Amino acid sequence: MVKILFGKKRKAVTAEEREAEIKREEEKAVNDANKLSKNIIRSEKSVRRYQTTVLRLLVFIAVVWILFFQVIGLMRMPTGDMYPRIDAGDMLLFYRLDKDVKAQDVIVINKATPESPKTKTNFVCRVIAVAGDTVDINTESGRVSVNGNTLIESNIFYDTPQYEGYTTFPVTIPEGQCFVLADKRSDGADSRYFGLVSRNEIVGTVITIMRRNSL
């Protein structure tokens, strides 16, 4: 009996075919490496873009913080004490770094009052006198004088009474302080009520007024 073996006949591989196969494998390896490299580059670019975006955002936040919390301030006029030049609700832009104020500057101050000595409140007032000046208020005419000269205030439409029980006149301004008045002299909160304003109580000098009805 003859046993017949069935099987596939293996095809002989020539040197040229083997070389071509090796070349294809090398090309595939190179392509795979290139794809991996491109993916890594894309990932690195994405990380750099993310880092750049975060850095720009941090720089923007820092600039805004420095500008609006260290250099420029914005506040709403809390009362009608500066009427009619500034009305209650108007937005005020003020410069924080200017503490060397002069007469007629409108400033924002943070000061305690006789009724609330432990609580400081923001006020907006006009500087009337600085260090070395002497301020007096005539109780009969309601006029303010500085160093013996009556102030001519074309933008003030109210008499200026003294407030009994608070500041005593005449008052001479010491170094590092100033005397302020509200434009609404009849009942405004100012140095007649809470006394002289020291340099460290000045928040800033008003540079722009944005009317409420135009916002």
Descriptive report:
The protein has two helices and eleven strands. With 215 residues, it is an alpha+beta fold. The strands form two sheets. It has a seven-stranded antiparallel sheet with strand order 1-2-11-3-4-9-10. It has a four-stranded antiparallel sheet with strand order 7-6-5-8, with no helix packed on it.
Identify the strand order in the major beta sheet. 1-2-11-3-4-9-10
| Main pleated-sheet profile | 7 strands, antiparallel
Alpha carbon gap, first and last residue:
112 Å
**Pattern of helices and strands:** HEEEEEEEEEHEE
Shape: rod-shaped
Average pLDDT rating: 85
Tally of DSSP helical segments: 2
Proportion of helical residues: 25-40%
% residues in beta strands: 25-35%
Features of this protein?
single chain; 215 residues; alpha+beta; seven-stranded antiparallel β-sheet; four-stranded antiparallel β-sheet; 2 helices; disordered N terminus
